[in-house]
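Supplementary Data S3. Sequence and structure tokens for construct A.
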Amino acid sequence: MDLKSMNWNKDNYLLFIDYLKSIREEEYKEFSEKITFTKYEMLGIRLPKLRSIAKDISKGDIASFLKVVKHSYYEEVMISLLVIASIKDMNELMKYFYKYISLIDNWALCDTFCNSLKIVSKNKEYFLEVIDKLIKSDKTYDIRVGLILLLCYYVEEKYLDLIFNYLDSIKSDEYYVNMAEAWLLCEIFVKYEDKGLKYLEKNKLNKFTINKSISKIRDSYRVSKEMKEYILKFKR
């Protein structure tokens, strides 16, 4: 199917859905449904293939595609997010950004989108305002998007105090928020052990998050055996 030069209309969109259905894998669908909880129906298409499809669509008329996409299936949402992540013009990207992150309802859509949003690395100061808005939201996946963007693009010494302030400010018991916090703190600890340790000594994280952070740090091969033993003192 020639997605690069597709004229996106109702009929061609239906052909596109038929194409997605033709490449689905039932066994992969069953596996995905066990680890990814979503309101969207899954077809069962592997991520590398979805990335390839999104890449082809991105070489064509993105705006027309985004007008016709229905998001009935998980894979449609993933493709749409990957297409948006490919947009290189900031103004064009932000036309779609908040609308499409509102479609995110699971960790896989969130993390894949954030990992693919390479434009952030060249526009960090701009996206700090976006992240601030997301983290101050009361929506689970808005907060997680903000945290994963920090994880992907901001684990640098100049941003550590800001990140620690965000970690302390989040008052959520949502599993996928707390797991993102733990993952972020682990990555900071591995890269900046002294500052990570100081934060462990005095933080405002809830019991689950601090204990999960310690567990992740102890799982890392980049942390010494002695340090892994030492940080057990911070468990609650």
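Construct B, processed identically:
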Amino acid sequence: MTTSAKVLVVDDTPHNVKLLADLLAVKGYAVATAVNGEEALAKVASEQPDLVLLDVMMPGLSGYDVCRQLRADPRTALLPIVLVTSLDPQQERVKGIEAGADDFLPKPINQAELFARVRSLLRIKALQDEVWRQAAALKEWNVKLEERVAEQVAQLQGLDQLKRFFAPAVADAILSAGAK
């Protein structure tokens, strides 16, 4: 199975980064990596991943901090984010939801769960992207339609002026001749 989806793996433990990157690469995902929150934000901007797997506990910016910053930016507000943590899942879920996370994975990683969550969130992202594409196309069509309506209104106004300038019978004859 190959896919063009890009996943950013963020963790301050090199072993965890390599494990996740290798697992995802084997499944055909393009993988970018970062070792801290600051690098994660830079990689999101430069690599534009389709999904972020984000460790919670990191020096400097925590996963929660990164998540909040991504949610605050309109360009990344809908980017799927999965928090990966070895901390108490119940406690961390509330903090993660408050920070804007879409999903959670406990450490150690269960491969089947990892792939199921990644596939699910990428499917949702693909649907969101399609909705945005269709909205842009509709906006473009709306602009063209407004232009055509404006042109037709201008033509009707011109015809109305023509009817006022000539006698009704003459104006109708001119209009009939122009329609042929």
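The first strand starts at residue 6 and ends at 10. The chain has a mean pLDDT of 88.
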